[in-house]
Amino acid sequence: MKAIGFFVAFLMSQAALAYPAVGDYVKYTGEIKLASGERLPLTAEIELTAFDAAKNAYTVKSMFSLGDQAETTEEAVDAIDLLSSSAIRGLVENCVSNGGQTSEAMVPAGRFDVCVIGQSDGQAKTTYSIGDVPFAIVKSESVATDGSTSTIILQDVRFGR
């Protein structure tokens, strides 16, 4: 259960990179390889399902599975916490000045111009490929200090209206 908690926390932290439109949807697949060598397949689906104008908040539905564990959640996220598509495009267009490298990513969801940026928190080094898609993540690869790794790849994307 600890592993799915980590995975849910990781992807939910990416909510700040979403396009704000009802119907925005992404599906990721990947794998976590534990230091023991055990491999856990993962799937994540995230969708903005509703907008409450009175609260200026979106409902985010998230479905995660890791190995034989699965979890579905719904939560309200303030619209101000979701970056616009123009902000994501700006990051990609100004990638080098933001400390990244420009590249192309071929994933099952298509071909995307991306900004590849790294992040290290003392426990893991993660490389994100950020592209012009809802929730911004096209691909993510991580290596933890204990030797465990994770890979997340965009399988499907739908843009809301």
Task: Compute the number of structural domains.
Answer: 1
End-to-end separation in angstroms reads: 35 Å
Q: Which secondary-structure class do the elements indicate? A: mainly beta
Q: Uncertain runs with pLDDT below 50, 5 residues or more?
A: 12-18
Task: Estimate the mean pLDDT confidence.
Answer: 89
Overall morphology? globular
Radius of gyration (CA) equals 15 Å
Number of helices: 2
Roughly what fraction of the amino acids lie in strands? over 45%
- What is the count of β-strands? 9
Tell me the major beta sheet.
9 strands, antiparallel
Strand order of the largest sheet: 4-3-2-1-9-8-7-6-5
Helix content: 10-25%
Q: What order do the SSEs take from the amino end to the carboxyl end, as H and E?
A: HEEEEHEEEEE
In short:
The protein is mostly beta strands and 161 residues long. It has two helices and nine strands; from the N terminus they run αββββαβββββ. It has helices at residues 2-13, 85-93, and strands spanning 25-33, 39-52, 57-66, 69-78, 101-107, 110-120, 124-131, 137-144, 149-158.
Would you give an account of this structure?
This protein has helices at residues 2-13, 85-93, and strands spanning 25-33, 39-52, 57-66, 69-78, 101-107, 110-120, 124-131, 137-144, 149-158. The N and C termini lie far apart (35 Å). The protein is 13% helix and 54% strand. A 9-stranded antiparallel beta sheet has the order 4-3-2-1-9-8-7-6-5. It is mostly beta strands and 161 residues long. The protein is built from 2 helices and 9 strands. The model is unreliable at 12-18 (pLDDT under 50). The chain has one domain.
